[in-house]
Amino acid sequence: MTTTSTTPPVRAAVAPPRATPARKGSAILSRHPRLRLGLLLSAPLVWLGLVYIVALVALLITAFWSVDSFTGEISQTWTLDNIIEVVTGSLYQTVTLRTVGVALAVTVIDIVIALPVAFFMAKVASPRMQRILVIAVLTPLWASYLVKAYAWRSVLSQDGILNWLVTPLGGSTPGYGLPAVIITLSYLWLPYVILPIYAGLDRVPDSLLEASGDLGGKTWSTLRLIVLPIIWPAIIAGSIFAFSLSLGDYITVNIVGGANQMLGNLVYTNVGAANNLPLAAAIALIPIVIIFGYLALVRRTGALDNL
Amino acid sequence: MRLSRPARIVLGSVTAIVLTVVYVPLLVVFVNSFSTSTSLSWPPPGFTLEWWRKAFQSTGALNAVLTSVQVAIVATIIALVLGTLISLALQRFEFFGRDAVSLLVILPIALPGIITGIALNNFFRTMMGVPLSIWTVVIAHATFCVVTVFNNVIARLRRLGMNFEDASADLGAGLWTTFRLVTFPQLRSALFAGGLLAFALSFDEIIVTTFTAGSGVTTLPIFILDNMFRPNQAPIVSVIAVVLVLVSILPIYFAQRLAGSERSLK
User: Fold this and answer.
1) Which of A232, A302, B106, B200 has the fewest CB atoms below 10 angstroms from its CB?
2) B3 — contact with chain A (CB < 8 Å)?
C-alpha cells in the first residue's frame, strides 16, 4: 500500500529509431551543416557554372580574337581591334545611344502605366476582382511574343485598326519606326512590370495606410512617404525586366522598326551573314557592361530579391 | 490614407483602359483568324473558317507544338530541381559568395537573350564539339528558367521560417522525411507557380532557341517565325495563337485558386 504510490508508473520508453543507412546519413548531415550546404549547392553550381559562366567567359575571350578575312576562320591571336572599333566607331555609338534610349523609354512608360494598375489591383479591387485582374494580366503572356509583335505590325499598318479608329478624329498611325518599336516593346513587357509591383503593393499592410491617414497624412504624402519606399525594390525589379529585355531585342525591331537597327541587330548580323563572331562578341560587351552597371547600381535596393 | 471616391474611379478607369489596350491586339489576332484577308487588313473583308481547318490539319504546326511542349516539360523539371536546391541553400545558410550565387541565378535572364544565345552556341559547337539538337535547346532553356522557380521558392521559404522543420526534427524525423512531409507540402503552390512561369518562358522563347536548336528541331516560336510572313500561313499562325491563349487560361486559373485558398487558410 505504501510502495506502489511512491514509485512513478513505469512508462514504456520510445524505442530508439532503427539505425538504417538513411537514418545514419540523415544524422551525419544534420550534424554537418557545411556538408548539407555543399550537397544542396553542388548540382546547381555545376550546371550554371559549367554551362553558363564558361560559355559567357569564352564569348568574352573571343572578342579579343579576330577573323582571318581570307579563310573566314577565327585566328586566336590577341588583339584589341574589335574593342577599339566598337568603342570608337560612329555606327556603334549611334546604335548604342538609340538602343539605350528605346530601352529607357520603354522602362519609364511601363512603370508609369503599371503603378496605377497595380495599385488598383492590390488596394482597391475586391479579392474576387483581384483574382480576375491577375488572370487578365497574365493571360497575354501566353500568346506568343512573335504573334503579339506581328499583331502590332497589323494594328499600326496603314490599313490597320489604329488608322481605322483615329482617322475620323484627325489622327494617323505612327507607322513603322522607332515609335512603333517603343510602343510594341512597352506592350510586350508590361505584364513583367505590373506583376512585381502588384506583389510589392500586396505586401503593404492596409493598417499602415490607415495609420498614416489617422495621423493626418494626406493621400499623396502617404503614397510618397509610406508606399513608395516599401515598393521601391519591386519597381526596380520590374525595371530590370523591361530594360534588359528591350536592350537585347532584335526581332521586334525587324517586325515593326522599319529600317532601324538596335544593338541586337548588329550582333545578329555579325554572327550570321558577316560570320564575324569576334566582332559580334565585342558588340555584345556593350549591353553586358550596361546591364552589369545597372545591376550594381540597384543591388543595394534589394531589388534582386524581388525579380 | 483613405482613397476618395473619385480617386478610386480614376484608378479603376485607368486599369480598364490599360487592359482594353492590352487586349485589342489579341482581339485583332482573334478576328484575323476568321478573316478572308491574308494581309491582316482592317476591317476584315469577309468571314471564313478555312484557316482553322487548315491549322488543325497542318502537321508542321502540330509537330512544332509537340516539340515545344517536350522541351518545356524537361526544362521545367530541371529548373524545378535546381531552383529548389539553390533557394534552400541561399535561404537557410550564410556563406561566402552567397551574393555571387544569387547573381549567377539572375544573370541568364538579366542579360539579353542574344548574348546567352551566341555564348551557348559558341560553347556547344566550338568548345564542346557537340552538334546542336533538341537537347542543347533543353539545356539552354533550363538555364534561364531556374530563376523563376528560385524566386517563387525563396520568397515562400522566407515567409515560412524554420519552426515546423525544427519541430519535425525534434520529433525524430530524418531530413528526407521532414522535407517530404513538412517542407514540400508548404512549397507546393510556390513550385507550381514557378514551374508554370518556367514552362511559359521556355514555350515562348525564340532568341536563345534560334541559336541553340539543331537544324531539324522546330519549336513553335521557330515555326511561327518561319511562317509569319508567308501570306498563306499568317492566318494559321493567328489560329495557333488564339488556341494557345484559350488553353493557357486553365493553368493560370488553377494557380490562382491554389494561391487564393492558401491565403484564406492563413
Assistant:
1) A302
2) yes
For B116-144, write each residue's pLDDT tens digit.
999 999 899 888 888 899 999 999 999 99
Adjacent-strand bridge partners of A66 = A75
Q: Give which of A287, A90, A119, A265 is closest to A197, Cα–Cα.
A: A119
With contact defined as beta carbons under 8 Å apart, do B240 and B62 qualify?
no
pTM reported for the whole predicted model: 0.85
Give the number of C-alpha atoms closer than 13 A to the C-alpha of residue A73, restricted to the C-beta side: 4
Residues A192 and A127 in one domain: yes
In chain A, what residues touch B29 (CB-CB under 8 Å)? Answer: 143, 147-148, 151
Residues A53 and A188 in one domain: no
| Residue A204 forms part of a structural domain | yes
Please name the residue of chain A whose CA is at the shortest distance from the CA of residue B259.
A131
Chain A residue with the nearest C-alpha to that of B112: A248
Residues 6 or more apart whose CB falls under 8 angstroms from that of A60 comprise: A281, A285, A288
Q: What is the pLDDT of residues A188-231, one digit of tens each?
A: 999 989 988 998 898 888 888 888 888 888 888 888 888 898 89
| The C-alpha cell that represents B148 in the structure block | 523563376
Residues A152, A56 share a domain: no
pLDDT in tens, A149-195: 888 988 888 878 888 888 888 777 788 889 999 999 999 999 989 98
Burial class of residue B44 (count of CB atoms within 10 Å of its CB; 0-12, 13-18, 19+): middle
The answer on A219 and A267 residing in a single domain is yes
Q: Do A194 and A118 form a contact (C-beta atoms < 8 A)?
A: yes
- CATH of B60-265 given 3.40.50.620, 1.10.10.10, 1.25.40.10, 1.10.3720.10: 1.10.3720.10
Domain residue spans in chain B? 60-265
Give the residue numbers spanning the domain of A42: 30-62
B258 touches chain A (CB under 8 A): no
Q: Is the per-residue pLDDT at B85 higher than 90?
A: yes
Amino acid B266: pLDDT: 43
Across the interface, whether the CB atoms of B23 and A146 are under 8 A apart is answered no
A42 and A117 in a single domain? The answer is no
> What pLDDT does A118 receive?
94
Whether B228 and A268 lie within 8 Å, measured CB to CB = no
Q: How many separate domains does chain A show?
A: 2
